[in-house]
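Propose amino acids for all 101 sites.
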C-alpha cells in the first residue's frame, strides 16, 4: 500500500470524524484554526465534510455588529439558540470560494 493511499485513507477517516454532528469539537478552535482544518478536508476531496466542520465550529462564533466586528463564520448560522443550525449551502459556498482554485 503506497503512502498516498494510506494518507488518503487517514484523511477519509478524519473527514468522517470531523463532520460528525456529535463531535462539536469545532467550537474549541479559533476561526483561523478551523479554516486550516477545513482547507485540509477540502483539498483531500471532502468539501462537504469541510462545510459541516465549519458549520459546527460556527456554533460559538459571535455575530458582531454591522461595522464588521464579530467572528468570521457567524454568518453560517441560522439560529443562535439552536445547536447545529447552520446553512449547509452557504457553508459549502464559503469553502469553495475560500479554498478552491
Ligand atoms: Zn469561526
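Proposal:
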Amino acid at each position: 500500500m503506497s503512502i498516498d493511499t494510506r494518507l488518503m485513507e487517514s484523511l477519509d477517516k478524519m473527514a468522517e470524524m470531523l463532520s460528525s454532528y456529535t463531535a462539536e469539537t469545532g467550537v474549541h478552535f479559533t476561526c483561523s484554526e478551523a479554516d486550516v482544518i477545513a482547507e485540509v478536508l477540502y483539498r483531500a476531496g471532502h468539501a462537504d465534510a469541510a462545510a459541516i466542520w465549519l458549520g459546527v465550529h460556527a456554533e460559538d462564533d459571535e455575530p458582531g455588529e454591522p461595522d464588521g466586528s464579530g467572528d468570521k463564520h457567524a454568518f453560517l448560522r441560522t439560529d443562535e439558540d439552536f445547536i447545529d443550525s447552520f446553512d449547509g449551502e452557504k457553508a459549502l459556498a464559503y469553502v469553495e470560494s475560500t479554498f478552491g482554485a
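The chain has a mean pLDDT of 88. The chain has one domain: 3-99.
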